[in-house]
Amino acid sequence: MVEKAQFSSHLYHPKYWLLWLGVGFMRLTQMLPLAIQMKLGAGLGRLAMKLVGSRVKTARRNLELCFPDMPDSEIRQLLKQNFEETGKAVFDTANAWWWSDEKIQKHMTIKGKEHVEQTLANGQGVILFAVHCLPLEMGARIFGQFQPGVGVYRPHNNPLMEYLQVKGRLRSNKALVPKRDLRQMVRSLREPNVIWYTADQDFGRSSAIFIPFFNVPEAATITGATTLAKLGKAKVLPFFVERNNDDTGYNIEIQPALDNFPGENEIEDAKRGNKIIEEIISRNKSQYMWLHRRFKTRPNKGDASLYK
Predict the structure, then answer these.
(1) How far apart are CA 291 and CA 140, in angstroms?
(2) Which of 162, 204, 211, 227 would suit a FRET pair with 179, their CA atoms being 20 to 30 Å apart?
């Protein structure tokens, strides 16, 4: 469990200077109103569309696979909006890491706090069942304003980025747990605590079952929510975060704890989880992380890629 960001003088090495320069620029943008930040972010996203063609193709293919009946004109429009939202997410992350608590509170609304409070009062841990919405970093910071929790994360390969993300995320979390440390997650839930959990990405064949996701009949899906809920004696609460349509702030909503979860069959649990993920994504399609190769792992090693 990581409870403090570890700084080293090694991070001043010249190989990190360009990244430090970027950090300095992002810190300066904190003085800008949110609306201006979002205009800059949208422009950054449009620029990215011209520079990262492979990611554009991935996002477009994901949309085609998930929404085969969507007209091509709508897909093109949604793709453009998604990249604009992705550019805005750069500022969302900076705001989540560096805004003061007072400034966060001026730009947020929370719905469903009572579901978390009641679950914890009953002596049970909370698994916030989230998805990779683009403002997710801000969602965690907002949630921490009333109930700091334990974040599940992937340690960054770049030492400076690891320091920055840990320091930023611990502004609202009690601690961070590497995503493979199941034992610590279970221990945290039993205390009880709140754990952030996402199951909407492709984590490879070794830990996957293949079940429907939107209109893809066999999508690699993990079953960790069932394991965590059983071992941690915890409740699963769906979690939604979005940026306002007019870019004036952020909203999060926590739904009531799922009934009869976990069930007797982890496959049925995972199918139920994918349906919840679909519902959350469908609430604001443009703010979902479509750039990830969600369907890269196929049921059989010889199966043709869905991205060719």
Answers:
(1) 21
(2) 211
